[in-house]
Amino acid sequence: MESGLTGVEALGSLLPAESLTQAASPADVGHRVGQARTRRALTGDALGVLVGLGKDQISKIENGRRRISVRELPKFAEALGVSVAHLLGQTSRPTLAMAHRLAGDTNPDEDSNAKRRALQLLEVEDVLTQRAAPPPALPTAAGQQVFDYARKELSQRPRNKAEAERQGKHLAEQMRRQLGLGSHELGDLPGLIERHFGVDVALSPLGTQTDGLCIHGDGVALIVASTDFSQGHVRFTLAHELGHHLLGDPRDVINEGERDMFADNLQERRVNAFAGHLLMPEEGIRETLKWLSAGRVTERSLVALMEQFGVSLAALVYQLCVMGLITYDQSKRLRSQRVTDLVTRHASVAPTGAGITVRQTVRAPERLLSAAVDAARNQRVGLGVVATLLQREDDDALWDAVMEADPEVLV
């Protein structure tokens, strides 16, 4: 597969470096520096240390009152994990720019399976954009309403835990209302996210060091989740990362393990509340409990709720505690139980075992896969692009599946 990662830097060779810096206004360059610094969660002092300038000089640069010199540009690009071309506004390929940013942000010592998968997908999208013009990823009218609500009504950061949980709940309720989801369980969550919010979703067995990864920025929106967890765990990860995207998290790369997702801060508490109420609406839970056990929480009703809403025991117990249906001490006792034993004892209400079953699914973003298959059939890209999306061998079996136009064989 062609990576094309040198394409961004190649832009710098089209004109002398001095001409490039003079062509870019200090205000525009400074704005991009400020955005990149925020996304990397760097203070002005910290960026200054990395590039050898004082905090006041960084402030002047970001406010457009000081131009970055030719010799300083590479230092800023390296410190911010972007390309020189990005800082100068010389690239019209946002996916490639994000790939460059992601590649520069990977720590050699960390488990970066999720980032490597995301990088593959960004590179594939850039190749397809250049050769096959895939359809843009756009939200539906209903999805845009949810975006607008999140960005306008919930733009203020929560001041305390209660407000964080309230904001997350309100966003989940708004999404269910706008999308006409009622109080029922969600079916194809990846498809729903892609269809209504213009976010590509990829699932892969990526180990258990990272639960999920959300990448979003100008013209790019991607969620990657590891399927080395139970199906219920994966669904909560997807909803959690969607919450970061909807609420406009300033970080352009959000790479999270379980400890990060459940960190004791207001930002994570808000997106967890969103994920919980989106997957397990209070009305739906109360209706099911009334039908199964006269409104009481029993072992059997717990397993039935896990099955119905496709969630893990930990997520369900947390939600029941939030709703006041069980006490904190009861939630601790329930979480200490072996989930497999619990489901086995009540297998009659858990035919699929969604709360505990690990399937190690591979799912490519539908928008990219459809475009890649069509482009391969028309010889605009090689079959390796399809193979990369599906994480399978570029062999005769894949050739036959693509050319025979049998989508079921591709999965």
UniProtKB/TrEMBL annotation:
Listed InterPro entries: Cro/C1-type_HTH, IrrE_HExxH, Lambda_DNA-bd_dom_sf, Rad_response_metalloprotease
PROSITE patterns named among the record's database cross-references: HTH_CROC1
A Pfam family recorded for this sequence: HTH_31
UniProt domain HTH cro/C1-type: residue ranges: 35-87
Superkingdom of origin: Bacteria
Cleavable signal peptide: none
Family membership noted in the UniProt record: Belongs to the short-chain fatty acyl-CoA assimilation regulator (ScfR) family.
Protein name per its UniProtKB record: HTH cro/C1-type domain-containing protein
Native species: Actinocorallia cavernae
